[in-house]
Amino acid sequence: MALKITVIGTGYLGATHAAAMAELGFEVLGLDVVPEKIALLESGRTPMYEPGLEELLRRHVAGIEGSSGRLRFTTEWSEVAEFGDVHFVCVNTPQKQGEYACDMSYVDSAMESLAKHLDKPSLVVGKSTVPVGNAERLAARIAELAPAGSEVELAWNPEFLREGFAVQDTLHPDRIVVGVRSERAEKLLREVYATPVTEGTPFVVTDFPTAELVKTAANSFLATKISFINAMAEVCEPAGGDVVKLAEAIGYDERIGPKFLRAGIGFGGGCLPKDIRAFMARAGELGADQALTFLREIDSINMRRRGQMVDMARDAVGGSFLGKRVAVLGATFKPDSDDVRDSPALNVAGQIHLQGGQVTVYDPKGMDNARRLFPTLAYADSAAAAVRDAHVVLHLTEWREFRELDPVALGEAAAEPLLLDGRNALDPAVWRAAGWTFRAMGRPTA
Ligand code: UDX
Predict the structure, then answer these.
(1) Which CATH class is domain 4-206?
(2) Who has the most CB within 10 Å: 173, 178, 228, 370?
(3) In the chain, which segments carry CATH 3.40.50.720?
(4) For the domain bounded by 216-299, which CATH number is listed?
(5) pLDDT tens digits along 196-245
(6) In which residue ranges of the chain is CATH 1.10.1040.10 found?
């Protein structure tokens, strides 16, 4: 009989995983403790913008015309426990307020609520990003609480999806990593992932601590690459070098590779910043803090970039933002997402606002979330409206829409044709040819 899957938590990770499992042919039951989220998902919609996800949901959510009917949702733990053979726990692990450590309370409470109802053999699979050591602790807790005792097992299966590519990354992962303690758990997970879509995908079987560490190590490496190139940009600026050329040239070395070497205002979002901080905090608890002191520097290079963008903009408008209209293109932490968590773009916009600039923000998808987080900023309905009468334009999130803007028309609408590219994604030659003064982080002024 085919395995039945449940997915606990319906954020980016959970909603995508649930829909992807249904796409792979499984009967899936998703759970969230927020009834409004469930109501939205049941109508084939999501609370966040994620390309392709709503289409995938509508293909499978029961009750939607023409759907496979394989995906349902509930708020009831007992229903989930009764339904599933394999339970994926996909809840959030945010940074604790005022601390580096990560907040495990959502994972703990999800695992406990589920375990109490598990009265038949089942596999609980943690997918959330957690500090190393938690899988071991949670395995003991589940064994203590589950009525089926040792018939219930835990496994850890970290998820590497990127926002904006969540569907693609889930259906076509680079690798599948499973931390297991028994052959039975490994067999079940192989069965879950033994689909034509994932055929040929490396399947790495390991222990609990390694599985947990793979995720934090991968994110730390990515953060390090970004801060490395941003550090190079900091040196290029006074030296007159061009960090974009530099990145291209070092990226041809296959050992380095071209990806994640785009210099600019740095990384943000709900993952990289908090993951490297939680990793440092955990290494400290393990007595290995020295091993990760470099991550403190990675974090400070990253945070410094935001201030440097503000300084660059202030210098460009003559040393003070007072009386200056500043157009900010981009509010989300990256394109193809409406997520503004720890967004470098909004941080820069907020700093300029605090220094007296009249900031107007436009973002293709992040306006509602940005308004909620920064209600004191002004918002425009289009890039052209934001740029109208601006003394300086800051390009802070590299949406495709911004690369397709008409520099000539915008130059006529702006008070000053002055553009600063905080993402190194626009073509300086095109903007300069249209009469703009174009500056970019880590690149020569002209
Ligand atoms: C990241 C990891 O990539 C993913 O594997 C993990 O599962 C979750 O965390 P995500 O947060 O969606 O994914 O974003 P990512 O694409 O990694 O970008 C993170 C930030 O780095 C963004 O703010 C982006 O603008 C910035 N970035 C990325 C750069 O500044 N330069 C680059 O070259 C690449």
Answers:
(1) alpha beta
(2) 370
(3) 4-206, 304-440
(4) 1.10.1040.10
(5) 667 789 999 999 999 999 999 999 999 999 999 999 999 999 999 999 99
(6) 216-299
Ligand 1 binding pocket mutation candidate from 246, 267, 299, 421 (most atoms within 8 A of CB): 267
Show the ligand 1 pocket: residues with CB < 6 angstroms. Answer: 160-163, 219, 222, 226, 260-262, 264, 266-269, 271-272, 333-334
**Residue 10: Cβ-neighbour burial (10 angstroms; 0-12, 13-18, 19+):** buried
Q: What is the mean pLDDT of the chain?
A: 97
Q: Rounded distance, CA 188 to CA 178, Å?
A: 11
Name the residue of 127, 160, 271 to mutate for ligand 1: max ligand atoms within 8 A of Cβ: 271
pLDDT confidence band for 1 (50 / 70 / 90) = low
Q: So what's the pLDDT on residue 299?
A: 98
- Of 261, 366, 405, the closest CA to residue 50 belongs to 366
Burial class (CB in 10 A: 0-12, 13-18, 19+), 150: exposed
- CATH numeric code, 304-440: 3.40.50.720
Please give the positions annotated as active site. 271
Q: What is the pLDDT of residues 399-432, one digit of tens each?
A: 999 999 999 999 999 999 999 999 999 999 999 9
Q: Is 32 annotated as a binding residue?
A: yes
> According to the annotation, is 56 in a ligand binding site?
no
User: Ligand 1, atom 21: nearest CA belongs to which residue?
Assistant: 267
d(CA 206, CA 183): 11
Q: Tell whether residue 84 is among the known ligand binding residues.
A: no
**161 CA distance to ligand 1 centroid (A)?**
10
Q: Which atom of ligand 1 is nearest to the CA of 275?
A: 9
Query: Rounded to whole angstroms, how far apart are CA atoms 154 and 108?
Result: 13
Identify the bridge partners of residue 422 per DSSP, sorted by sequence position. none
Query: Distance, CA 219 to ligand 1 centroid (Å)?
Result: 9
